[in-house]
Amino acid sequence: MAVTEKSILNRLYIVAGFLFLFACAVLFKLVSIQLVHGDKYRDLAHKRTERMFTIAPNRGNLYSDDGSLLATSVSKYTIRFDAVTVSDADFKANVKPLSEALAKLTGKSSSHYQQLLRKAKANKNRYTLLVRNLDYSEYMDVKDFPLLRKGPYKGGLIVEQKTVREHPLGKIAERSVGYERKDENGYYTRVGLEGAFGQYLRGVEGKRLKQKIAKGQWKPIGMDNIVEPKDGYDVISTIDINIQDIAHHALLRQLEHYKADHGTVIVMETETGEVKAISNLGRTQEGRYYERLNYAIGESHEPGSTFKLMNLVAALDDKVIDTSSVVDTEKGYWKIYNHRVKDSKHGGYGKISIAKAFEVSSNTAFAKTIHNGYKENPSRYVNHLLNMGIGTELGLPIKGEGKPVLRSPGDKGWSGLSLAQMAYGYEISMTPLQVLTFYNAIANDGEMVKPRLIKEVKEWDRTVVKFEKEVINPSICSKETVAKVQQLLKDVVEKKHGTGHRLYSPNFSMAGKTGTAQKDYVSKDPDKLKYISTFAGYFPAEEPKYSCIVVIHEPDKSVGYYGADVSGPVFKSVAQKVYATNPLIDEVEMMKGEDEQLEQSYQKYYAEAQKKYKKVPNVKGMSGMDAISILENLGITVEVKGNGKVKKQSISQGTDISKVEKIILELS
Known about the structure:
Layout: H1 2-36, H2 38-49, E1 50-55, E2 62-63, E3 69-81, H3 88-106, H4 110-122, E4 128-134, H5 136-143, H6 151-154, E5 157-166, H7 174-177, E6 179-182, E7 188-191, H8 192-196, H9 198-201, E8 206-212, E9 218-220, E10 234-237, H10 241-258, E11 262-269, E12 275-283, E13 289-290, H11 295-298, H12 308-317, E14 326-328, E15 333-336, E16 339-342, E17 351-353, H13 354-360, H14 363-374, H15 378-387, E18 405-406, H16 418-422, E19 428-429, H17 432-443, E20 448-449, E21 454-459, E22 462-466, E23 471-473, H18 479-494, E24 511-519, E25 530-539, E26 546-553, H19 563-566, H20 568-581, H21 594-610, H22 624-633, E27 637-641, E28 646-649, E29 662-667
Parallel strand pairs: 2-10, 27-29
Antiparallel strand pairs: 1-8, 2-3, 3-4, 3-5, 6-7, 8-9, 10-21, 11-12, 11-26, 12-13, 14-17, 15-16, 18-19, 20-23, 21-22, 24-25, 25-26, 28-29
Helix pairs in contact: 3-4, 10-20, 13-18
């Protein structure tokens, strides 16, 4: 018995000892946590219950020059459903009306949503997707749907909000408008105007401290943000949406007709350098076209015969030739070393002036002229081009400008053929916008201005930054040379032998130069030979308001590939429609007595308009506008044919107005 009691006591002592040691260990740990690692664990607890949230600012809007939206930020909402928080009674009473409301919103069936909701309830799903990408008004409607109107805790409503960037013009000018994206590491990808001027558009993020509450919800601590967000500024671009729309659709039609790989159109205001339209379209494997890359700014390639203008300006200024200088085009080809320079016309043009050589775009004439004129001092030729701004980047704010190539004697790739090749646009590389900048300088009487895509940065009605005209070169050549080449560019279109004569219209004037450059010409396989078709110029020819370049790559050769055929019609379409939407207005001085006649005409109209008619009046002899105003005020629908004064009305005078719904007026 004593042995047994002693054994039990020993065991109790052992257990008590273990308990004492455990208590000591717990006490030591508590002291260690509190005193040694206290700061660490307090920070950890703080992070789990409190968190600093970033408040995204509203990104500024991007506008066209007339205030139309090119890009804007809008809130989009995703609605999810927490099936656990909803009571069985509420769910049963509301599942059908909720499903019907969702079906009406989305176009899906009510049974689809009933099945979705019942499955979520059975599986206790706390994050079921109901609908996504709602705008604000749709979101407000959904918040008031049966069951969801009870809120997050009784109705299971979960709302996720995000801000997305929308382009009201859709795919038109998409690459030029561009985007700015920030990855998880904080690095930006910048494209187009959005990327170039992101520093103004993006604003400054705010900070807000929030505390974690039940069910994964966070609530703000205090009434104020730690750092208030600052919204981005608005940016006003130079883009004219009407000209942009014209350029886009004219290019699209031509690309589709010629089954081309890609193309670009740029329209620039001559005096200021403001880019009014910039369209870039590339072909998909399915044969459709979309804004794939910014070819206008980023694609540098051999310009072909459009570069003859640069050569002509240099040669005229250097007195190497004059427009009346005669060049022998021989039989349509000229051999230099082991290379043949050929003209597009079989048999050549014979002996012609350099002026006509430019108008017919003779390769042999220009190759002989530039080679013979500068072969003793080729650096003089290259330096002249450099001094005019050729071979230099424009320094645009938009990322990705293509680098021009202009070799000098001694550079890799320079050879005895270089002068002859460069004479008609090979062994040199430029982007479409770089080429257009030179043509615009000729239109601008020699002043080369930097292309400009932005007018100003604004905060509400306050201008933050204003972008002014920037002159690259006040005079690229002599006034005499400018006048001569302006006339030749006009003759390319107006003279019957000019390569651009098919574009001529007696209704409006244009000046420009065609260009047809070969691609992949190093290949000996003719089937692999591809072309770049270009037309660059300006309009009107006499007092240029806009310059324009059209470049189309790889048109189907079976349909056509010459610049006048492929790119020229796009240029003409743009010029014609811009003329139509922006007519030149001349103030006409009235002859003696005309103002009195106008006043009498108005008084006659006013007297007629004041009458209370019950029958159709006689409006013959009235101006169309006056007749329409009187008849429409009587509640009659008016259809008009022609212009001028009313010569015939379909409903005769004296007809009861109550029996008339529509009247047709024929104008003289």
